[in-house]
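subagent[fold] <- orchestrator: predict structure for attached chain, return tokens only, no commentary.
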Amino acid sequence: MPGKSNASDMRAQVRSGDYLSLYQIRVLNRSACARIRSTKKQNPKSEAPPMNSQSNLRPLASPPLNAIIFRNQNSKAFTLIELLVVVGILAVLALIAIPNLHFASTRAKIARIKADQRTLATALESYATDHTAYPLCNPFGVAGSRPSAPGDPAVLERLSTPVAYISNAFVPAPFSPTNYSAGYILGVGPIETNIGVWPPIDQAGPEAALYKCYQYTATHQSDTTLTGDDRATVNMIGQGVKADAFILQAAGPTLGHINMGGVVANSDAEYSSALLYDPTNGTVSFGAIFRVGGQTVPDNNFYTVTAGK
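subagent[fold] -> orchestrator:
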């Protein structure tokens, strides 16, 4: 407390340049006045000692108000106001940085998806060179993962066994889908972009792990006599038509898996474009990331639209 400091201590503070509180200044002034009166009583003819003498007090200047109110003369710690200012600045920086970090993470995942799809496409092209066709699949199921018929190996296993065109075709995608489109995306009609109303993927079911991988759809696109479901379901037993085009799909940031059967059978350019993830619509926006390959009919369909992306 200031009242416990004696005049000698306060004079030492003044000489060292420390600020004094108003209370200490008043105490020190009273002490100086008492000394002057005492000196005059002992020697009435003597003059008061000069105020700038090293052995006496120098003029006492009032310290800045903020120093009196906020800083203790013996404390070197930060004041509460200073700490609040620093916390406020850090909070503003965090509000700016966290969304940017999130967007940067999303962009990095998109870049990884495109790189993985290029690798898978190279393996598929190598397979097609040896077999004059791409692997068949079930485009109405977990495309690329579910076998085309009971007893068949999973579709993309053909890329790693018996000939290893790629070490592992079941590569987990960066975005793990939580819902699948079912009847909400059929290639015609309205597109439901609210993933929350799509049926949820059973995360404990036998196909949960398959949904987490890149999805593969193969169709026969070069024969113009095939239309609708005939174009999309070349893999069905007894069909006898080879797959000459493929689609690789990965879920986008909204975590929706699009079932491609109706899309490749029915969609036109406008409908197809609405299914493609476009970061210019927002880093976290509706759509999946696709890569197509093989022979396609130059008409108004999903393949021709996606090939230009």
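orchestrator: received. Logging for downstream: The longest helix spans residues 80-131. The mean pLDDT is 76.
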